[in-house]
Specification:
The complex is a heterodimer of chains A (376) and B (75).
Chain A lengths: L4 E7 L9 H16 L6 E5 L3 H5 L4 H8 L7 E4 L5 H14 L5 E9 L5 H9 L4 H4 L5 H16 L3 H14 L14 H6 L2 E3 L2 E2 L8 E9 L5 E10 L14 H14 L8 E4 L5 H9 L8 H6 L16 H5 L6 H13 L14 E6 L6 E9 L1
Parallel strand pairs in A: 2-3, 2-4, 9-10
Antiparallel strand pairs in A: 1-7, 1-8, 4-7, 5-6, 8-11, 10-11
Helix pairs in contact in A: 4-14
Chain B lengths: L1 E10 L10 E7 L4 E6 L10 E7 L2 E6 L2 H4 L6
Parallel strand pairs in B: 3-5
Antiparallel strand pairs in B: 1-2, 1-4, 2-3, 4-5
Classes of the chains: A alpha/beta (376), B mainly beta (75).
Chain lengths: 376, 75
């Protein structure tokens, strides 16, 4: 495998957008190409979860390639539920690392606000196993049962994991890309509507539109791919051996660290999937930053704040940046690259950064990715 | 079929066609874990021993009768 570098990143503002999904993808892709100093690539991979139902768009890879003036390059759609953005990045890496292509564009996006909240919930619930969906189980319901078990096992309280939302909103307060530029308090989180006990509205990421893009190439640049890994898990929650950890993340992280030849303590900061905020805590344990059951204590002690030992989600995470499901996994990588290059504006971590880690969850952690980047 | 509640939730925002709230739990039985409905919030406690009854396509967790309650459920 040859070395692969990240030469350009671009992102739209996340939130409720008037533009179509294709418009958003094209906007982010043009920014990434401009950042990379390129007007052509050899191939593109487009990550999106369900543009057919959310946005009535299909054949999206071809449409985006055409709009970008990239025809006749190969254009392929990638889908792994809510980790589709990370999966598109991985495919771009594999393509460039093989030597078959020199420069590859990864694009990811979702347009979710065109349909009602009820409809969004129904579409998202389609990733749940039919034998659990028939009970009316939703993504928040299954996530809530995971968190309930974690609380039982490790003694975490609702006010403890409310700190994830507070931290991530604070990190995003001046972000031009974030869905929310608003500070919130633990009290705000605890007083918000209970969706699926113990998860409240402010523990859940919002329904958002947005897109992110990245150019990867064999040509040297300031950020290098060091490791990536992917792991899967049984779709029904009831078939899992453990509820308080995600095997899919652990396998992905082990593979990524092994490829990179580094350890969790070498990582300077991370972007962790916090679609439900306690998942940031579980993710921080699964990638090895904390022992099992200790992630919430690390959060409480400020270890994951922007000035802490291992800053997590300096971008604001999915909770505050927003969660256009197909886009989030690649948006994490774009933010990580900006941090490593010292270009994250008000979100910048003020110390030397060497390695960044991103972790993306597909579905209810059924298809997860971990990516490690290095500033060179 | 007897079992033990492993985890649970009360779902207040339910999908179309389902009433709210929904009381859901995962019950560990001798052979497998099963998703089940519960009657009310009082039923929902991790470690609680329950009787699972199947009605149509769904399981329902019911309280054990007094005598049954003190029998050890399957590990």
């Amino acid at each position: 495998m040859q070395e692969v570098y990240i030469s350009g990143g671009g992102m739209t503002k996340f939130g409720k957008r008037k533009e179509t999904l294709v418009d958003l993808m094209v906007e982010s892709a043009r920014k990434a190409l401009q950042d990379a100093g390129k007007d052509k690539v050899d191939a593109l991979y487009v990550g999106t979860m369900n543009p057919e139902e959310f946005a009535a768009e299909s054949n999206i890879a071809s449409v985006v390639a055409d709009r970008l003036g990239l025809v006749p390059v190969p254009a392929t759609r990638i889908e792994t539920a809510s980790s589709s953005g990370a999966a598109a990045f991985d495919e771009a890496i594999y393509a460039a690392a093989s030597g078959y292509f020199n420069s590859v564009l990864a694009i990811a996006g979702e347009k979710m606000t065109s349909v009602s909240t009820d409809r969004v919930s129904k579409i998202l619930a389609e990733v749940i196993a039919p034998e659990e969906r028939k009970y009316g189980a939703t993504m928040p319901a299954l996530a809530a049962m995971i968190i309930r078990r974690y609380i039982y096992k490790y003694g975490m309280k609702e006010k403890d994991f409310a700190e994830v939302a507070v931290k991530n909103h604070k990190n995003a307060v001046r972000s031009p890309y974030a869905h929310f530029n608003k500070l919130i308090s633990v009290k705000d989180v605890l007083r918000s509507k209970v969706i699926a006990d113990p998860l409240k509205l402010y523990d859940c990421s919002p329904i958002s539109d947005g897109a992110a893009s990245m150019v990867v190439t064999s040509e040297k640049s300031r950020v290098k791919l060091r490791g990536l890994g992917q792991g899967s898990e049984h779709v029904p929650l009831t078939r899992r051996k453990k509820f308080t950890t995600f095997q899919s993340t652990k396998i992905a992280a082990e593979r990524a660290y092994k490829m990179a030849g580094i350890y969790p303590e070498d990582i300077s900061f991370a972007e962790i999937h916090d679609a439900f905020t306690p998942f940031e805590i579980i993710g921080s344990e699964d990638v090895g930053f904390f022992e099992p059951g200790m992630g919430w204590i690390g959060l409480k002690e400020g270890e994951t704040s922007k000035t802490g030992r291992i800053p997590i989600n300096p971008s604001g995470g999915l909770k505050a940046r927003g969660h256009p499901v197909g886009a989030s996994g690649l948006a994490q990588v774009v933010e990580a690259v900006w941090q490593l290059r010292g270009e994250a504006e008000d979100r910048q971590i003020e110390r030397e950064l060497k390695y960044a880690l991103t972790q993306s969850i597909g579905g209810l952690a059924t298809n997860n990715m971990v990516i490690i980047l290095e500033a060179v | 079929m007897k079992g033990t509640i492993l985890t649970y939730t009360v779902l207040n925002i339910t999908p179309e066609g389902f009433g709210e709230p929904l009381y859901l739990c995962v019950v560990k039985t001798k052979d497998e874990n099963l998703l089940s409905y519960a009657r009310d919030k009082e039923m929902l406690k991790i470690g609680k021993k329950v009787n699972l009854q199947k009605q149509g396509d769904h399981y329902y967790a019911r309280p054990l009768k007094f005598k049954e309650y003190f029998k050890k459920p399957p590990e």
